[in-house]
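Researcher: Let's run the pair from yesterday's discussion. Sequence first, then tokens, for each.
Model: Starting with the first of the pair.
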Amino acid sequence: MAMNYTMYQYRPDVKEKDRDLKEKDRDLSTLVAHSVWLSKYEALNDPFEFAGLLEAKDFPDVDVLASNVGIACFCRAKTNPLLWSHYAAAHKGFAIGWDMSHPWFGRANGTDKSFLHDVVYEDIPLDPRSFGNGSAFLMSSLTTKSTAWAYEQEVRLIAKCGGRSAQIPKEAIKEILFGMAMSSERMSEIRSNVLAAGMSPSFAKMTRRSGSYGVSPEAV
């Protein structure tokens, strides 16, 4: 069976106002710039992120390191309706499919050289006493979440410095998936901007899967 090396980043496709109160097409601009935001852990949406760090008294340097790291979150799943509801504005947004085998992500050099890591789901927070050093404990803390989040099938890009954007080669974008509630006009606008930026991904719109509560992509 062929391995699926695509990971997806869901975007609500919202417009926001800048400091001058001018409307900004944030998610489309980010897509065209082929960049991702590296969030610091306190900005993530799970209040229990890195719960084990609260008990890390044996590794005083770990908390300092953790406060600086940047994380971009992706999902392996593209047909889970919960992801489209939670992260793509109730199916009105879109998803970017990134080729995680692209050399930029480090997979070509082996997973030990990569800064992409699959999230592990556990019911009990990590115990720092079971780790021999702070580095191992920190990496496990960065990549372990409650089993309540397992439906996301999350992959994390972890960098040393957060609170900034990272530009990824546009060739790594292989798919653009439109939510089933997105208008035809908006799909055309996004497609034309993507093509004008020199990208050549495939395009599909999510549709209701017959006989189920699921969704599946149809080429457009």
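Model: Moving on to the second of the pair.
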Amino acid sequence: MTIQIKPMYEMKLVAEIKDKLWSMPETSTYRSVQFYLEKWRKVYDSFGNANFDIYTKDGNIDLYATLHYIGDGELLLKIAIDLGIETPDFIPLIPEFRNVLKTSYKQAGETFEKAFKQVKSDPSASIIMAHSALESILKEIAKVLKIDKANTMTIKNLTKEVMKKFKDNPEFPNELKNISNNFENINQTIEDLRSKKTEAHGRTSDDIVVTTPLYAEFIVNSVATVGTFLINYYEQMMQTESENASDDDLPF
């Protein structure tokens, strides 16, 4: 599965990234902006082949050309997200989710990468990995929230216990509570699909195994949607609790 964006939107995104980089103190020089983009490069072999090239002009980086020839819409979206550029014309859920996982949930991130990369080549394995990534996220959150016996719970019960903590917030909207109630069933269904329709367990010749990439893509997108909400709301909740605790320490 790949992230594709329209050429005109890509042109707009390149221009916004270029302007943002030149306007930020951290990347306002040729040297610093090249160092920043080098951090996004992945060199594949000893010959220096990479996911994109750094173009130069008069001995300095040609930022506009470099960005245009990246040719990877998803990478441009990741850079835009990292720079805080709004992308109202494109909802970069998968790139944002992958970035968050790599930063704070590395184990889940590695597993989700496998799910993402195998959507078309091995849908069954993709679903297995997507389920594991979601389970890892829930267990990480449950550990910090001190939920008892989280490691032995089904994914449905794990989701239920985590959402209980979220719903304790008096500002949690009732409408969102109704939506989040379905997270338990969604996550359980993903687990059922993984257990009954993939190669996760021993199969007989009569068993049905998912071989359609479209189904795997749907599951990967579903995990990204649910996972993004769980992580973002959890981190927002923890930040609020930390700020409230700091206020309690004030002597006035």
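Researcher: Give me one sentence on the second I can quote.
Model: The beta strands are 56-57, 60-61.
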